[in-house]
Amino acid sequence: MQLSRRAEAIQESPIRKLAPLATAARARGMKIYNLNIGQPDVPTPPEFLQAVAGFTDPVLAYGPSDGLPELRQAMSEYFRRYAIEIEPREILITTGGSEAILFAFNAVADEGQEIIIPEPFYTNYNGYAEMANLKVIPVRTRAEDGFHLPPDGALEKAVTPRTRAMLICSPNNPTGTVLSWDEMERLAAFARRHDLFLIADEVYKEFTYDGARHRSVLELPGLEERVIVVDSISKRFSACGARVGAVISRNRSLMAAILKFGQARLCPPTLEQLGAIAAYRLPETYFDSVREEYQRRRDVMFDGLTKDPGIVLRKPAGAFYMIVKMAGVADSDDFARFLLEDFNLDGETVMVAPAGGFYATPGAGTDEVRMAYVLEAAKIERAMEVFLAGLARYRARS
Ligand SMILES: Cc1ncc(COP(=O)(O)O)c(C=O)c1O
């Protein structure tokens, strides 16, 4: 039977595609440090789990399509901590940030229209663009610049009569880069100049280091009609399996349209929204220890990697990922496979995500891998030794 063009075109996840090789390596008795996937190991707040366990209604019924009012209220209060005034009606709860991306794409652009995204980018944007029949237009950022935005000229070149939106992610997956306020203001001017929506994926909002604070696009003055925020509790409260996210915008007609998408899928999960309400009511200090822990891990990873003079890496300021560019590696897919199939250091190896899948430009990122620092610092320290030994062996072999 003939499948759709979309079904044929959708890309395999670069994060998960090496999983069978890892399974085989484990079966051979190998210990693997998993640096390939952004699954945090920080415990989900007990308050979340207790709220779910405390559900006593006899029927687990459908909830409202835009989410439980108490959750939207709790989120509105959470944003107030950052001096951002967002009304509950400007928040629509989604089934994870993933659905928020899908809804935002579908609301701003029609088939064949374009969304500009700085690359490398969170690989699933490709999948959602495919589902919405949109075209992703990448704008290249580079390891040497810490993956900050290129000059305005490069952004201008990406614009066509079909461009509808620019999508940014800060703090960024996969680079860890946090955009500066100057960069955000440049983006605001760019969006105004070309009459574009500015979609911002802010699911790593709390994860900023060295005292840096993330500024939201919701803080950009005069951009109320253009700004759409993709949000999620997956990383914020280490609750990836809950599948609770949100799409946030002050643009009333856009939110009314998104509500119709929401109605088509009935409602987001009820029990997990109850957990999310409890999590949002945690004091702000909850994030202090989480942030400290990730900063320590980032430092250990960065210090470990930069021992190799052939690695290009600027210290990332947020999220929990790094894109690592390596001299002597021309095909990081092959290198990641080598680590799992042909290498070990005293019975240990590492699993990384080849970065090519985070780019839309063919051939880009083939000398890079993405690493996530989602293991304890001591394990990351050892994983870096193993990784550098593997890199040295690979270079010698090639
Ligand atoms: C940048 C970014 N956006 C969105 C998501 C999707 O998150 P969710 O689990 O809320 O669907 C992820 C998940 O890793 C992510 O890294």
Beta strand %: 15-25%
Radius of gyration: 21 Å
Distance between the termini: 43 Å
Number of strands: 13
- At the fold tier of CATH, the topology name of the largest domain is Aspartate Aminotransferase, domain 2
Level of helix content? Answer: 25-40%
Instruction: Estimate the global geometry from the Cα principal axes.
Output: globular
Bound small molecules, by name, code or SMILES, are: pyridoxal-5'-phosphate
Tell me the domain tally. Answer: 2
Structural class designation = alpha/beta
Number of helices: 13
* Averaged pLDDT: 96
Report low-confidence residues grouped into runs of 5 or more.
none
CATH homologous superfamily of the largest domain?
Type I PLP-dependent aspartate aminotransferase-like (Major domain)
CATH architecture of the largest domain: 3-Layer(aba) Sandwich
What is the string of helix and strand elements?
HHEHHEHEHEHEHEEEHHHEEHEEEH
What's the CATH first level of the largest domain?
Answer: Alpha Beta
User: How is the largest sheet built, in terms of strand order?
Assistant: 2-8-7-6-5-3-4
Tell me the major beta sheet.
7 strands, mixed
